[in-house]
Design goal:
This protein is of the alpha/beta class and 196 residues long. It has one domain (13-22, 33-195): Rossmann fold (3-Layer(aba) Sandwich). It has helices at residues 13-22, 34-44, 62-68, 80-89, 127-130, 150-160, 188-195; strands at residues 51-54, 72-77, 94-98, 106-110, 115-119, 133-138, 161-169. Strand 6 (133-138), helix 6 (150-160) and strand 7 (161-169) form a beta-alpha-beta unit. The protein is globular, with a radius of gyration of 16 Å. Belongs to the class I-like SAM-binding methyltransferase superfamily. TPMT family.
């Protein structure tokens, strides 16, 4: 299906913050995403102690699961409310500190040190700030970024991953003329052109 009807759609940071404030977060999955469990072996590929990145993480429960397995988790989320809810809902003590390289950004880290969530725009991150990752769980990020920002997003993600990394990407398939998004429709051909 042609996704031209969505190409110019822009969802602002304020709109995302409002979704969290109003509790309009139907995209959050309390029980985790079934595809995460189905493809976890692909993500981990038999490796231990990985650094896994969660773009636009919200309060994804999978972050806690991976940390409990001994992996290091880094997420980025524009909503401070979402980040704080993640820690409180899992009874995880944390501390927060400013991120010197990013004006106004904060980093929330579990006191155990294995979960670090950056509260800022994803586009403010770089590998010099967060390092490189062995894996990515992109459950709702590519389909949430504004269509005009997809190339910028994909370039950033490619820059953040190690050469032998695993990238799990979930998209949704539907007729984009019937739904304005998000989640946005990203055809497979575009995924291939973005990520190779």
């Amino acid at each position: 299906s042609d996704d031209a009807s969505q190409k110019e759609r822009v969802v602002t940071e304020e709109e995302w913050l409002q979704k969290w404030e109003m509790g309009n977060i139907g995209f959050h999955k309390e029980q985790g995403h079934p595809l995460f469990q189905k493809y976890l072996d692909v993500l981990l590929n038999g490796r231990n102690g990985l650094r896994i990145f969660f773009p636009l993480c919200g309060k994804a429960v999978e972050m806690k699961w991976l940390a409990d397995m001994g992996h290091s988790v880094v997420g980025v989320e524009v909503s401070e409310q979402a980040v704080k809810e993640f820690f409180s809902e899992h009874n995880l003590p944390y501390y927060e500190e400013p991120v010197p390289e990013i004006s106004g950004a904060k980093m929330f880290q579990s006191t155990s040190g294995n979960i670090s969530l950056y509260c800022c725009s994803i586009y403010d991150l770089s590998s010099s700030i967060v390092g490189k990752f062995d894996g990515v769980w992109d459950r709702g990020a590519l389909v949430a970024v504004n269509p005009r920002d997809r190339q910028r997003y994909a370039s950033l993600m490619i820059n953040l991953v190690e050469k032998n990394s695993s990238y799990l990407l979930v998209t949704v398939s539907y007729d984009p003329s019937k739904h304005k998004g998000p989640p946005f429709y990203v055809p497979e051909s575009e995924i291939k052109s973005l990520f190779g």
